[in-house]
Amino acid sequence: MSIGFYFDMSRCTGCRACQIACKDKNRLEVGTIYRNAHTFSVGSFPEVKCYSYSASCNHCESPACMAACPTGAIDKREDGAVILDREVCKGDGACVEACPYGVPKLWEDGKAGKCDSCYLIREAGGTPACVAACPNRALDFGEVEELKKKYGDALVSDIAVLPSSDKTKPNVYINAKETATETGFTEVDW
Amino acid sequence: MGITDTGISRRKFMQGSMAVAAGAAALSAFGCAPNAEVKKTDKTEAVNPEEGGTWVNAACWHNCGGRCVNKVMVKDGAVVRQKTDDSHEDSPDYPQQRGCVRGKAQQQQCFGADRIMHPLKRKGWQPGGGSNSNGENRGKDEWEVISWDEAIDLACQEIKRISDEYGPTGFYCKSPDPSINVMCGCVRGWDTTSHGTYTLGAEMIGLPSCGLGNANDRFDMKNAEYIIMYASNPTWSAAGTPTYYYIQAHEAGAKFICVDPLYNASAQMLDADWLPVRNGTDMAFLLATAYEMLRLDEAEGDIVDWDFLHTYTVGFDAESMPSDAKVNENLKDYILGTYDGTPKTPEWAYPICGIEPEKITAFARIMGKNNKTMLLHNYGMARCNGAEMIPQMIVALGAMGGHMGKSGHATGSAYHANCGNAGPVLVKAGSATMPKTKNPCSTGVRQPQLYELIKNGGGDVLDVSNAYGSFHEGIPTTLGPIKGIFHSTDATLQTSLNQKEGIEAHRAVDFVLTRAQFMTTNARYSDIILPVTTEWERVGGVTSSNREFVYCYSQVTEPIGEAKTDQEIGTLLLQGMGMDPALAYDKSETQQFFEQIAGCQVLGDDGEMKPLVTITADDIQKMGVEGEAQEGVISMDEFITNGGYQYERTSDDGHGFIGWKSFVDDPAGKPLKSNSGKIEIYCQQRYDLMASYGYPGVEQYKPYPTYVTPCVGYESTFKDGKIGGEKGDYPFIMYNPHYLRRSHTVFDNCPWLRETWANPVFVSREDAKAKGISDGDTVLISTPAGKGLRRAAVLDILLPGVVGVPHGAWVDVDEKTGIDRAGSDNYLIGAEYGGFGVSGYNNQICNIEKYTGDALEPDCEWPQRIVNA
Q1: A15–B235 CB contact, under 8 Å
Q2: Residues 6+ apart with CB under 8 A from A84
Q3: What is the pTM for the complete model shown?
Q4: Which residue of A has its CA nearest to B268?
Q5: A183 vs B: CB within 8 A
Q6: Which domain holds residue A95?
Q7: Could A44 and B33 be called an inter-chain contact, meaning their C-beta atoms sit closer than 8 Å?
Q8: How far off is chain B from A112, nearest CA to CA, in Å?
Q9: What region does A103 belong to: left with phi over 0, alpha with psi -120 to 50, or beta?
């Protein structure tokens, strides 16, 4: 069984509501971000297209963070969620280095932390905070097979701003705009 | 001590907030990491961090454009988490009222480490006026904590003195509250703020007040083929559900066109075609579009809806002039060049507005009568110098295509919570009846000019308005000195233009009294600061949102520190003045909350509004209020627990709305409010009122839309004021887009939002290259009015020649250099005006250069403004 995120690029304005919802739920201080949304442009004025992408842990089939962790603090749960136990973490930082998506973050206390797919909220019957927060309903979460059934087969895990999915087999399923496959992108850092 | 430079660092926010809340309740859960408790093995029972907490519907009350659901988990008196609407299953027809990025950080407002906890007095200030006030030290002085008794005594002593000597005109307040009206009164400032030139006589044209409310409802958006987003970016300016309606129209096949100097976030998502019209030159673009519609109609036919024009409008052509016209001219002949020999062709418009002629032609085709086109505007183009006739021109263009009163067609505004969802309310909030108070002074002064008046100790003004969106014939008035300033419920010194002179004016008076939660701009330049609660610390309230939803919020926490509510503060001030507080407040805030609930209404099956909430004698007794039981459709308990009431809509529920339809169906029986009862493309009444003010440049105007040279605008970027000539010292157009980090000024201090939205200056790639500016560089923005700094966001999605200074950053002047480190938009704008005195927020002029002084750090790393008094 695998769980993962669905992201509908055609519905994302890059408003970053997901980013703050995640910071809130995880009580993260300034400097530590588990989910973020970025906006990219392709082309130059006035022939320009844009898209936004909301990124967090992809709860990969082959989590590089877990493979790299020397203390066994990272675990892939039965449902596929990749969880980092901060009590076990010794702050080695190997996961931060290993993840091609840059997901785990070192806290000021030296230990790492990352998205746990709001495991406890889900256990209590809820939805990950970012998904529930999205004003445009651009995010969803669930069993991968269910997501594919719900959103169709045209979903991709590779867009120009992400590393190749070959490495870790990420469970992120994107309804991508065509523009998002073009490599000549620029971040709109506004 | 002053505002700390070494106070609580950003990383100490959590601890800082704990300290803040400690006075009210322990904030024990704040800072814990829930996922630390997800144990590695499944054998360990997972602990839900929310266990033991209670979800409370929390207020979200700012001038942001939304009224969305904001729920907070309160545990041991502290807020440990927020979430948005989950009160019913979400569907496109019956959407949850989900909030935006800002509301999710609301906890950092209420519980911010930078909350003002106690009444403060500026050390150098003493009552008595004159040199006692040491006014020049406002904004520089240190603060001392004083008791509420001292604060009220000092304030009332000073208010009495000024009131006795100068009367009501001795004071100024932008938005006086009841206590100010009763205590002393004040001169008011007027401003065209949000709706720009739509604040002047929109009804005279035949539009609703401020142009609000005559588009179609959300279900009909799906019937459009083309949706023009004119100066419109709902995701930043109409947070909440509106963007979701646009998504649904997009998914139903509508094609979007964005008219905006910035390829904005909404347009990006919708893959809109982009027409980057240069700020403040919209009239040239719109006139040329009309010219092309006429040309195409002549050449090919079926573009202009002549029947519509001749049935529903006056002043478009010679055969449809209104009876009160004093000038025998019309829009069509002006466009064709009959009067000035200049046809308003796309080639004429191109050097002004920057849109290539073929794109104007394509746009004219989209506006043609056989397309289902919705022309939905926000107001950025009306917040420009010289934009007085934009309301008439936009409605004229919509009328040329006949895009009114029909499904799939619209001409109207897309603003705030009603963006993309116009129509009469299906459910509405009640209100408490309070004593009517009257300001003994009716004089209103154009806000930016008021500062000069204060500095000059009074002078002659033409009083033309003292209420928003309402102008009257000019009343010549001579004002004496203004000695006292009140800031009660607004952020005037930050949100009004001419801020630099505003600071000087604040330093020129005897006394500035401010209510504040933080060391805001208003607070910083004050003498006494009274700590006021946020809505989270009050008893609760009900607010109207969009037409389908009312929000009911409850108290989250006891007041932080010594903060008091507005009513408590007003009561103390009135008592201090020896007046009866009941003149302003005659019932408790709980009673007011009850009346808001009891007064809520919902549309009944019979088409009449009727009570929404069922109230029993038991409810009344439990709440400890006075009232009568009533029958509604939801129990009071449920209403409060659910956080309000949403009217469940379906596409065929009969509550769909088509703007203008009643007038279009029956123009004689349901005339508009204009003199002719029709849409006045030529409007004598509005022109006469505006011209009577005699403001600079008004001689250029006609009673119908024409292109005028603004007092400050694109022309001003050229040395000789002629487009196409040599550029002058301020070669760029500067404008102030709304920014998602804050609601005007509110939230600008929240660390999470500072980190998430960094407050840069928007610079086009082409201009950045020419100026040697890279992403993240510190940029000095210079204007005739002032200088400010921001970090550069170099964009491929901004029209070259335009500089965007997102609105609302809290001014932070370096007293040595006079440079504002926050890059406050209004610090960079002066007081120039023309036409009818519109505030030209969006077509100012500036220069930019790479700053050679110390680079700015990201402002989420700046110390918070914590008063160490």
Answers
A1: yes
A2: A65, A73, A74, A75, A95, A104, A112, A113, A114, A116, B35
A3: 0.95
A4: A50
A5: no
A6: 3-181
A7: no
A8: 11
A9: alpha
Q: CB–CB of B366/B397 below 8 Å?
A: no
**Is B241 close to A39, i.e. CB distance below 8 A?**
no
Cβ separation A45–B240 shorter than 8 A: no
Q: Which residues of A touch B104 (CB under 8 A)?
A: 17, 20-21, 24, 133
- Using a CB-CB distance cutoff of 8 angstroms, which residues of chain A are in contact with residue B13? 29-30
Tell me whether residue A51 is in a domain.
Answer: yes
Mean pLDDT of chain B: 94
Question: Do the chains contact at B756 and A134, CB–CB below 8 Å?
Answer: no
Give kind and range of the element (H or E) at residue B455: helix B447-455
For B833-868, letters b (16+ CB in 10 Å) and e give bbbbbbbbbbbbbbbbeebeeeebeebbebebbbbe
Q: Is the complex ipTM higher than 0.90?
A: yes
What the block records as the tokens of B37 is 């408790």
Nearest to A108 among B11, B107, B754 (CB): B11
- CA–CA separation, B454 and B498 (whole Å): 13
The total domain count for chain A is 1
CA distance B861 to chain A (A): 8
B573-601: string of b/e by CB count within 10 Å (b at 16+)? Answer: bbebbeeebeebbebebebbbbbbbbbbb
Q: Answer whether A188 sits within 8 Å of B795, measured CB to CB.
A: yes
Contact B760 A189 (CB under 8 A): yes
Q: Are B536 and B59 in contact (CB under 8 A)?
A: yes
Q: Between chains, do A13 and B14 touch, taking CB under 8 Å as contact?
A: no
Q: Does residue A177 belong to the interface with chain B, where contact is any CB pair within 8 Å?
A: yes
Exposed/middle/buried for residue B307 (C-beta within 10 Å: 0-12, 13-18, 19+): exposed
Nearest residue of B to residue A79, measured between CA atoms? B42
Domain assignment present for A138: yes
CATH for B714-861, among 3.40.50.150, 2.40.40.20, 3.50.50.60, 3.40.1280.10?
Answer: 2.40.40.20
pLDDT digits (tens, 9 = 90+) for B417-440: 999 999 999 999 999 999 999 999
pLDDT of residue B49: 62
CB contact set of A127 (below 8 Å; sequence gap of 6+): A118, A121, A141
CA pseudo-torsion sign B44, B46, B49, B51 = negative
In the sheet with A3-8, reading across from the earlier edge strand, the strands are A139-143, A3-8, A172-175
Q: What are the helix (H) ranges across chain A?
A: 17-26, 64-68, 94-98, 119-123, 129-133, 144-151
pLDDT single digits (tens) B139-198: 999 999 999 999 999 999 999 999 999 999 999 999 999 999 999 999 999 999 999 999
A123 in B contact zone (CB under 8 Å): yes
Q: What is the pLDDT of residue B522?
A: 98
A70 touches chain B (CB under 8 A): no
Of the candidates A124, A130, A185, the one whose C-alpha atom is nearest the C-alpha of residue A160 is: A185
List the beta bridge partners of residue B732.
B846
Cβ atoms of B498 and B478 within 8 Å: the answer is no
Contacts of B48 in chain A (CB under 8 A): 120-121, 123-124
CATH code of domain B205-322+330-423+690-700: 3.40.228.10
Give the contacts of B775 (CB within 8 A, at least 6 positions apart).
Answer: A189, B792, B793, B794
pLDDT score of B5 more than 60? no
The answer to whether A62 faces chain B, any CB pair under 8 Å, is no
Residue A73 near chain B (CB below 8 Å): yes
Q: One-letter amino acid identity for B179?
A: S
Please give the distance of CA A164 from its chain centroid, rounded to a whole number: 14
- Check B766 against A177: CB less than 8 A apart: no
CATH of residue A154: 3.30.70.20
Query: What residues of chain A score a pLDDT lower than 70?
Result: none
Cis ω before A70 (30° cut-off from 0): no
